[in-house]
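Fill in residues.
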C-alpha cells in the first residue's frame, strides 16, 4: 500500500541542489513498524535550513498512505515553510501544497510580494498538469491547521489517475522554493527577527496540536512513538 507515486524520491530530486545533509535521529524512529502500519522518517539540514523532514505513513486497516515533505527555515530567515503533502485512501486522494508564511502579510506586505506572489502562477500550472483528474479544489479543511496557510494554498482532491502526475507538481513547488532559499538573507531588524521566530514556533505548535491524523496514529503507533514522530516533523 503506497500513494502510488515516488513522492519522496521526486521531492528529494527536486531539492538536490540544496546540498542537504542527513541528520541523525533515534534509530528506532527511522522506521516504525507495528501490526497496524508503518512510519518512515528521514531528516536533513542545510544552509539556511533548520530541518527538512520526509515522512511516509501507512495505516493498513484503513488502506491509507500519506507522504510529505516539510522544510523549516533556520531562525531569523523569514522565508516561508514549504509543505507538500499527499494522502491516498480508497475513493479519495488529497494533496496539500503551500508556502506557509512566517510574517504577517498585512503588516509586512512586502513579504507577500517577495515570497507569495509567485504562488498563483504555480497553482495555475498545477491545475493545468492535473486537469481532469481534479475532483475538488480549494475545499475547507476540517482542521484549524488551515489558519497557518497562505492565501494561495493549493488544496486538491484527485482521482487515482492524478497520482502519477504529482511528481511534476512537486517539482514546481520545490524548484520555486529552492530559488527563494538561494536568495534569502537573515532579517536585520530586531522586530522582524522576533516576529518571524515567534510565528514559526506558533505555526509549529498549531500544526502539531491540531493534526487531524493524530488520533489515528495514536491508536496504532502508541503515545510515545506518535509524540516522538510529531516532535521530529514539526
Amino acid at each position: 500500500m503506497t500513494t502510488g507515486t515516488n513522492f519522496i524520491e521526486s521531492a528529494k530530486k527536486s531539492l538536490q541542489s540544496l546540498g542537504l545533509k542527513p541528520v541523525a535521529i533515534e534509530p528506532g524512529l527511522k522506521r516504525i513498524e507495528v501490526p497496524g502500519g508503518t512510519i518512515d522518517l528521514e531528516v536533513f539540514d542545510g544552509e539556511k535550513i533548520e530541518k527538512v523532514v520526509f515522512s511516509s505513513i501507512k495505516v493498513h486497516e484503513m488502506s491509507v498512505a500519506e507522504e510529505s515533505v516539510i522544510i523549516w527555515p533556520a531562525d531569523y530567515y523569514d522565508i516561508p515553510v514549504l509543505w507538500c503533502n499527499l494522502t491516498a485512501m480508497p475513493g479519495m486522494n488529497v494533496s496539500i501544497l503551500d508556502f506557509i508564511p512566517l510574517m504577517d502579510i498585512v503588516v509586512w506586505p512586502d513579504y507577500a510580494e517577495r515570497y507569495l506572489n509567485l504562488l498563483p502562477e504555480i497553482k495555475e500550472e498545477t491545475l493545468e498538469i492535473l486537469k481532469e483528474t481534479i475532483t475538488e479544489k480549494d475545499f475547507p479543511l476540517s482542521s484549524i491547521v488551515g489558519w497557518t496557510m497562505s492565501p494561495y494554498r493549493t488544496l486538491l482532491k484527485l482521482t487515482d489517475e492524478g497520482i502519477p502526475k504529482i511528481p511534476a507538481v512537486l517539482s514546481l513547488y520545490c524548484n520555486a522554493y529552492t530559488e527563494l532559499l538561494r536568495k534569502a538573507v537573515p532579517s536585520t531588524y530586531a522586530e522582524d527577527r522576533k516576529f518571524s521566530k515567534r510565528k514559526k514556533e506558533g505555526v509549529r505548535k498549531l500544526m502539531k496540536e491540531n493534526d487531524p491524523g493524530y488520533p489515528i496514529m495514536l491508536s496504532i503507533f502508541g503515545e510515545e512513538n506518535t509524540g516522538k514522530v510529531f516532535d521530529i516533523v514539526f
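The radius of gyration is 17 Å.
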